Amino acid sequence: MTLFILLIVNWTALLGQTGNTDTLTCYTSEELLRIANRVVYANECDTLYKITTEQLTIKDSLIKVKEKELILRDSIVENYKDIVIYKDSIIDNNKKHITVLNETIVKTENQVKLVKTGWITTVLGALLLALL
Questions:
Q1: Would you say 32 and 14 are in contact if contact means Cβ atoms under 8 Å apart?
Q2: Measured distance CA(127)–CA(132) in Å, rounded
Q3: Are 25 and 56 within 8 A, CB to CB?
């Protein structure tokens, strides 16, 4: 179809040319066909350029979206690191609290032993005094 249009344009252009060489440039059929082919090629290149430009725009947009995703993921990772630090801190504090409670239990058990020893000593002393 394109070739048919080119032939019609070529034929029309040949018929429109006059023999006066002072003001017009005359082209042969072959030259007109080469010019028409170049016009078609230029239109194809222009279309391909527009398509490529649109593809690049889309890819640039995708790159920007991916960059934002990376920034968000980095932020999430930092938040998780903070959570781990806070959990470690809580664990350390609980370990210290458990150590203090264990020390208190040991002191209390020692005090109970001393009190029992004191009562036993008192009772034995009272029994000894009562028997004498």
A1: yes
A2: 9
A3: no
Indicate the helix (H) or strand (E) that contains 123: helix 29-131
Largest CA distance in the chain: 163
Res 33 pLDDT > 80: yes
- Residue 17 CB partners (closer than 8 Å, separation 6+): 24, 26, 27
The 3-class secondary structure across 8-24, one letter per residue, is HHHHHHHHHCCCCCCCC
Q: Which domain holds residue 88?
A: 2-131
Q: How is residue 87 written in tokens?
A: 């959990």
- For residue range 40-97, list pLDDT tens digits in order: 999 999 999 999 999 999 999 999 999 999 999 999 999 999 999 999 999 999 999 9
Angle at which helices 29-131 and 2-16 cross, to 10°: 140
What pLDDT, on a 0 to 100 scale, did the predictor assign at position 84? 94
Total domains in the fold of the chain? 1
DSSP per-residue codes, 42-85:
HHHHHHHHHHHHHHHHHHHHHHHHHHHHHHHHHHHHHHHHHHHH
